[in-house]
Input
Amino acid sequence: MNIRLLIAWLALGLLVAGGCAAGPHVITDFDPSVEFAAFHTFAFSGITDRGQEIGASDHSPLRGRIKEMIDEQLAAKGLRQVRVEDRPDLLVHLFFGVKDQQRVERTSGAPGLYGRRVETYAYHDGGWTPVKSPRVTASEDHEGTLIVDLAESSKNALVWRAVIRAVLGDNLEKNFEMANKGVATAFKDYPPAR
Output
């Protein structure tokens, strides 16, 4: 598996290139009629990775690191992980996605050596004349998204959702650091106050 695919599935968008000041964008929502104090156990019910369903018993080390982050947050809130067969109070489903974003920038002249502008000339009627030549540069970012759904297993009803988005960087470890930051931010106010 090449590094681009490894970084892409992580998506989390959550994941910003090193040196960028911006962190992941995190949004959470919940069902206000649910009594969250009644939940004591959870199990991972599955993963949807870029549109493909992956079973709860997935052994990918990269997806496993994200599951560990979620497990750590839920354990800190007093929930215990069990198997799906043990009828947990909550089912956890993860969704990963990546969206390519292209940016095009246009400038009025190309910078040359030592910051000087580079002049562009065109040949007309036996002579060279300066022309305005805009410089166009294109770049591509990969926005990663991680969605964490908590569903009440007895009713099979979604009760809480976190959406974490950020721009993926080229450094896998920095991406994981950003993912951990996004997951921690999402669970900061869990269980939600009424």
Summary: The first strand starts at residue 25 and ends at 30. The radius of gyration is 23 Å. The domain at 3-102+140-187 is CATH 3.30.160.670 (Double Stranded RNA Binding Domain).
